[in-house]
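Record 1 of the preview.
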Amino acid sequence: MLKEFSKKETNRYELVITVDAEKFNEAIKQAYQENGKKINVPGFRKGKAPMGLIEKYYGESVFFEDALNILYPEAVQSAIDESKLEFVDDKIDFDLVSISKAEGVEFKVVITVKPEVAIDGYKGLKAERVKTVVTDEEIDAEVNAVADRNSRMITVEDRAAAMGDTAVIDYEGSVDGVPFDGGKGESYSLALGSGSFIPGFEEQVAGHNTGDEFDVNVTFPEEYHAEELKGKAAVFKVKLHEIKTKEMPQIDDEFAKDVSEFDTLAEYKADLKAKAIERKDKQADADVENQLVEQIIELVKAEIPEAMIENRARQSVEEFAYRLQAQGMDLSTYLKYMGGSIDQFKDTFKPQAEAQVKIRLALEKIAELEKIEISEEDLNAEFEKMAKDYNMEIDQIKASVPADELKKDLAVQKAMDVVKAAAVVADVDKKSEKTEEEKKPAAKKTSTAKKSTATKKADGEKAPAKKSTTTKKADGEKAPAKKSTTTKKADGEKAPAKKSTSTAKKTTTKKAEDKGE
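->
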C-alpha cells in the first residue's frame, strides 16, 4: 500500500510504500520455491533442505532480496495508481527503509512524473488560409500525365532521330584510340534528352537515321566518377539500330472512357477538378492547423523532464525502423549506409520530439481547462472507425487499444478543435512572408518521424552514363496504430514500474553461496 507521497523537486515525487508481513512472508515462500534448489546445506542433497534450515544456516534474511524483487513491480505500480501521479520514466530511485518477517517491508521510491503545465492565450490565435484555386491548366496537366502513362512506344522509320525519341544503339568508346572498361554497349535503349549519358552524346545521336554508323566526340566531365577518364576527350563508335517514339492517345471522350468511369472528357475533367479542390482544401486546413500548433507550442509553460523527450525520440526511431522494415531494410543496414551510431541517429529526432511532447502536454491541459469529456458513444464510434480503417473486427481493436488511452487521444483531438474554432483565420491568395525575427521562435515540426532517404549504390554503370545517386524513400507506413500530429502520445509512458537488481539498493543479507556437501 501507499503510505504517503510528497514532492521532492520539480517533476520528482517520493512514494513511501509498505508491504504487510503476511504478503511478505508469502513472497519469501515463493522465493524459496524458485531459488531454494540452488542452495547447499550440509547433510542435505543440493536443493533438498527445508526453508527453515536454510534460514537457520544462512540467516533469516537469506530470501529477503528475492522476495522483495517478487513484490516490487506490483507494489510500485499499485502505489503509483493510488497516488494518481502520471509516471513518465522507468528509471526509479529506490531506498529500503525496513524489512523483517514480523513487520513486513517499507521502502521509498522516487519517480519522474508529468510536469505541471500552464497555458494562456490559446483562443483567438491568428492563421492564414490560402484560398483554394484549381486552374484549367492544372487539370490539363493531370490529364496529359494520365495520357503519358497510357502511351505506347512505336518504331519510326521515315525520319531521323530527334530529341525526345529513344534510340537503340551499339556503342564503343576509346580514349587516344584505346578502348576503356565500361565503354561498350549493345542494343542499348537511350532516351535522347534524358541527360543520362555524357553531355553532348545524346545531341550527336539526334539527326541520324536507322542504320547509320557514326562517331560521337565528347569530353568526360572533370567531376566524372572514373579517375582515369576525368577531363579526357573520347570517341564513341555508334551504330543506330532503331528509333522509337512515344505515341500518345487521342485525348477525347473515348480516352475518358478508357481511363475512368465517365463517358465524356468533360465529366472526367470535372471529377478531376472536384478531387483537386478537395485535396487542396485538406492541404490548406492542415497548414492552418500547423500554424496554430506552432503558436500553441510557444505558449506552453512547463519544465519538461528530459526522459519524456528521450522516450519520444526513441519511439520515433522505432517507428522509422518499422517503415524501413516494410521496405525490406533493417535499421542497422540503413545506419551503415548513412554512417553514425544509433544514439547519434536518435539525437536527430530530439528537436521534433520536444515539439511533440510540448503539443501533447499543451492540448491535454487545454482539454482539462475546457472540461472536455469523452462519452462512451464517442469512444465506440472511434473504435468502429478504426475497425473500418484497418479492416479488423471491432473486438480485435478493443483488445489492442486501451479504452483509457483512446479517450485521452480523443480529448486531445477535441482540444485542438476548440483552438481551431476560436482561431481568427484569414483567407489569403498567398501566405505572407515571415520576418527573420518571427521565424526564430517558430516551433519545431510536430509531424511523425522526419523522413530521410536511404542512398542506394549506383552499381554497374556504363561509362558514358553520368554517375548519379538513386535515393530510396523511407516511407510506406502501415497502420498498426492510429496517430495524428496533434494526438500522438508524446510522453513515452511505461505502464508497469519495474526494478532491476542494478537499480535497486541491495538488501544487506548474508549471501547463500553454494557449498560442497
